[in-house]
Specification:
The chain has helices spanning about 5-30, 40-50, 55-75, 85-90, 100-115. It has about 120 residues and is mainly α. The protein has one domain. The longest helix has 28 residues, at about 5-30.
């Protein structure tokens, strides 16, 4: 399988993982468990399982997508009372709780790390 097909499979895996993570987060949040790292983490896991080779640019893209998904998930779960729009939410990220920002950041890192793929490192020593 060539690289372009694997990248396409990685994108599909990322999309599937992100959707599963979003709905799993919403379900878990209704049960009282706040796992904001789950959507971006599953995005990265789906991407890494499907891409099957090590690509830093692809993983960076997944990290950015994981960050966006984490912020989107938080907005859908707990929008600001003053204005529930996404633009207001993004303009007032600094008003989020530090733990929320930490979980979004950790989720983005996990998304990046999981999306690196499964090629073993080659020892050149």
């Amino acid at each position: 399988m060539n690289r372009q097909v694997r990248i396409a499979l990685g994108v599909l895996g990322a999309m599937a993982g992100g959707v599963i993570g979003y709905f799993a987060f919403m379900w878990m949040a209704r049960q009282g468990f706040y796992a904001l790292v789950l959507p971006p983490g599953l995005l990265g896991l789906g991407a890494g399982l499907c891409v099957r080779f090590r690509s830093t640019p692809f993983a960076l893209g997944c990290g950015v997508a994981g960050l966006a998904l984490g912020l989107f998930t938080e907005w859908k779960f707990a929008p600001f009372v003053t204005d529930a729009s996404l633009t207001y939410f993004l303009g007032h990220l600094h008003r989020l709780k530090p733990l929320t920002l930490l979980m979004v950041g950790i989720g983005a890192f996990i998304s990046y790390r999981m999306a690196l793929g499964s090629d073993p490192k080659v020892n050149r020593g």
